[in-house]
Please model this.
Amino acid sequence: MTTRRVYYIPLALLLAAAAALRPAPAGAQVQLTLTPYMVKGAARAPVTIVEFADYQ
Model:
């Protein structure tokens, strides 16, 4: 192995560990308004799936 390659592997591991320990950024909160014709199922369902689609 060359000297350059020997230093590259520990540096890559260090950067990966630093990225893994960094806290995840907070997600943006979005308020959605759904009209009744856009909803299917019970309002108190345990799981809600929202699909964003582009039909172009």
